[in-house]
UniProtKB/TrEMBL annotation:
Residues 14-345 form the Enoyl reductase (ER) domain. Its cofactor is Zn(2+). It comes from the Eukaryota. Its EC number is 1.1.1.1. GO terms for cellular component: cytoplasm. Keywords: Metal-binding, NAD, Oxidoreductase, Zinc. The keyword Zinc applies. InterPro entries: ADH-like_C (IPR013149), ADH-like_N (IPR013154), ADH_Zn_CS (IPR002328), ER (IPR020843), GroES-like_sf (IPR011032), NAD(P)-bd_dom_sf (IPR036291). The lineage of its organism: Eukaryota, Fungi, Dikarya, Ascomycota, Pezizomycotina. GO terms for molecular function: alcohol dehydrogenase (NAD+) activity; zinc ion binding. This is alcohol dehydrogenase. Belongs to the zinc-containing alcohol dehydrogenase family. The keyword Oxidoreductase applies.
């Protein structure tokens, strides 16, 4: 395939600097890497954190963000054998890992201390051509639309992993905070596909309509109008949800969750509001045997499982398409909480 020497990308010099849409060199893959012509890339709340620098993790300088990039492989390194030019592949949050530490050897490579993070510690998918380690790029079946699969590469994978970590069983109730957002809209669908009953927690008529009539949640709790704790309990016979998936970008839901999680239930923290803390009263947490845990992104097997759910038609990620050049406007909408579902950027524009 013909590969240009220059491409368009969204880049910023350091945190909070202006995001510049400009031409940059096309990178060349190393021996164990592949070069993917990114066709579409999702916009995740993590990308906003990367730009703002409000996480306790330093970003690369002169950073090209993004980590939900779906496209076509156009070049491979000399050591790469199982990925071919012309294959469809995706850039994920986890760009690479050492492969040698105890976490990598136990298939917990997201916990690798030397992990490479797309759009954070290495350049990501807000560009037309992006690099990924061959062992970590997502394998995408060619019959899957690349715009629709992009949000699965982080949002879908992340929430699928969180649902597995919740230890909930088919038929049990899972409460999802931030259910109408990019992560939440996928969580509701994965939860339904896994056999869970879903209570969606969010606010606004648009998100209520989407959660109940498009995504398939059984109940909707509007946190701006309802007493969340009382409402969830009333919907579950006074016992609470078997699991709570916390996707919120503010701190308050993290303080409330154990109060509407039933005994022996699990609270799974996924969202990462800046400088927030999780707190719970010790006595009820102990005597009700509630588990509070964090869930990060999935491993390589989780990735393929999450994609398989989508390939079988069980997941339909709601998304809107914008131009790569419109990333700052998408960030503004994200900050204002005005995005229902996910934005996907067309890198050809």
């Amino acid at each position: 395939m013909s590969i240009p020497t220059e491409q368009y990308a969204q880049i910023f010099k350091s945190n909070n600097d202006p995001i510049e849409y400009k031409k940059v060199p096309v990178p060349k893959p190393g021996p164990d890497e592949v070069l993917i012509n990114i066709k579409y890339t999702g916009v995740c709340h993590t990308d906003l954190h990367a730009w703002k620098g409000d996480w306790p993790l330093d970003t690369k300088q002169n950073l090209i963000g993004g980590h939900e990039g779906a496209g076509v492989v156009v070049a491979v390194g000399e050591l790469v054998e199982d990925v071919k030019v012309g294959d469809h592949a995706g850039i994920k949050w986890l760009n690479g890992s050492c492969g040698l530490c105890e976490f990598c050897m136990a298939s917990d490579e997201p916990l690798c201390q030397k992990a490479l993070l797309s759009g954070y510690t290495v350049d990501g998918s807000f560009q037309q051509y992006a690099i990924g380690k061959a062992t970590h790029v997502a394998r995408i079946p060619k019959e899957i639309p690349l715009d629709a699969i992009a949000p699965i590469l982080c949002a879908g994978l992340t929430v699928y992993k969180a649902l597995k970590e919740s230890n909930a069983r088919a038929g049990q109730t899972v409460a999802v905070t931030g259910a109408g957002g990019g992560l939440g809209s996928l969580t509701v669908q994965y939860a339904k596909a896994m056999g869970f009953r879903v209570i969606a927690i969010d606010t606004g008529s648009e998100k209520q309509e989407m959660c109940l009539n498009v995504l398939g949640a059984e109940e909707f709790v509007d946190f701006a109008k309802d007493d969340v704790i009382a409402k969830v309990k009333s919907l579950t016979g006074g016992l609470g949800a078997h699991a709570v998936i916390l996707l919120a970008v503010s701190e308050k839901p993290f303080q409330e969750a154990t109060e509407y999680c039933r005994s022996r239930g699990t609270v799974v923290c996924v969202g990462l509001p800046a400088k927030a803390r999780v707190s719970a009263e010790v006595f009820p947490t102990v005597v009700r045997m509630i588990t509070i845990k964090g869930s990060y992104v999935g491993n390589r097997l989780d990735t393929q499982e999450a994609i398989d759910f989508f390939a079988r038609g069980l997941i339909k990620a709601p998304f809107k398409v914008a131009k790569l050049s419109e990333l700052p406007q998408v960030f503004k909408l994200m900050e204002e909480g005005k995005i229902a579902g996910r934005y996907v950027l067309d890198t050809s524009k």
